[in-house]
Design brief:
The chain has twelve helices and three strands. By secondary structure, it is an all-alpha fold. Strands 2-1-3 form a three-stranded antiparallel sheet, with no helix packed on it. Helix 10 crosses helix 11. GO terms for molecular function: rRNA binding; structural constituent of ribosome. One of its GO terms (biological process) is translation. InterPro entries: Ribosomal_uS4, Ribosomal_uS4_CS, Ribosomal_uS4_euk/arc, Ribosomal_uS4_N, S4_RNA-bd, S4_RNA-bd_sf. Pfam families: Ribosomal_S4 (PF00163), S4 (PF01479).
């Protein structure tokens, strides 16, 4: 048998997988195959109804999923809005607490009589009043004194928690009190650790070299005293001191004096010419 006869015989058989050259037979084969598949699929009478029900169920599922998605988005938006409100409230609270904490600490360290709270009710203005009164450069110098004072108070508080006959309290307490007397922060009559808790910023500020120079009338003003110290015109005993925040001891307070200026100044030299 030739190849053509074989092909014609195969074409007579309805086989959709075989390549057919004639276009009419090809369409016929495809339609026949579709009818066969439909008849196989819908052989049971309930199959069509099941398909319709399944489609409806799928539609309901899609609607339900869409509703869920919308609810989730809505809840997410609500959560985000609530979180923003919480953050704002927390930030406001923390700001208030921090300012209250700072002001409370400052209130402990400053006496009301010294700074007249009626005229300056704001604690920021109290710091500025301290800066102006003692001729400080900035608030950093106030914070530095506050830190020293806080450390002294902490040491005294820890020693007060111990037993009065404890050797640690006796040894360290006496050393701490000697230091207070040496720097003139306490009088010799105030020989108790409780008096350290009553110290204020003003006590420490009074013992700075700048204030001592001004009060001993070596300078015209508190600011002039700072300038003199920075220009190296002040000596404490035999030592030249150019630090305005230098803590003056009671013994060395008598020996603060101006350095003898042997060199002629710039303006005097001009006048001599």
């Amino acid at each position: 048998m030739s190849k053509k006869t074989r092909q014609s015989q195969r074409a007579k058989k309805i086989n959709p997988h075989m390549k057919i050259v004639d276009e009419s037979t090809r369409k016929y084969v495809i339609n026949a195959r579709i009818d066969q598949l439909e008849s196989d699929y819908y052989d049971s009478p309930n199959r069509l109804a099941e398909d319709i029900e399944s489609e409806e169920f799928e539609m309901e599922l899609e609607e339900h999923e869409n509703e869920k998605r919308d609810q989730k988005l809505h809840t997410k938006k609500q959560k985000k809005a609530a979180q923003k409100i919480k953050k704002k409230k927390i930030s406001k609270r923390t700001k208030k607490e921090s300012s209250m904490r700072r002001n409370f600490n400052l209130k402990k360290l400053i006496k009301e009589d010294d700074l007249e709270h009626n005229e300056f009710p704001n604690f920021c203005s109290i710091r500025l009043r301290i800066i102006g009164k003692y001729g400080l450069k900035n608030k950093k110098e106030v914070w530095r004194v506050q830190l020293v004072l806080a450390k002294l108070r902490k040491a005294a508080r820890e020693l007060l928690t111990l037993d009065p006959k404890d050797p640690k309290r006796l040894f360290e307490g006496s050393a701490l009190m000697r230091r207070m007397f040496r720097f003139g922060l306490l009088n010799e009559g105030e020989n108790k650790l409780d008096y350290i808790l009553g110290l204020t910023i003003n006590k420490l500020m009074e013992r700075r070299l700048q204030t001592v120079v001004f009060k001993s009338q070596l300078a015209k003003s508190i600011h002039h005293a700072r300038v003199i110290i920075r220009h190296k015109h002040i000596k404490v005993g035999k030592n030249l001191v150019d630090i305005p925040s230098f803590m003056v001891r009671v013994d060395s307070e008598k020996h603060i004096d101006r350095i003898n200026e042997d060199k002629v100044g710039r303006t005097k030299r001009r006048k001599q010419k």
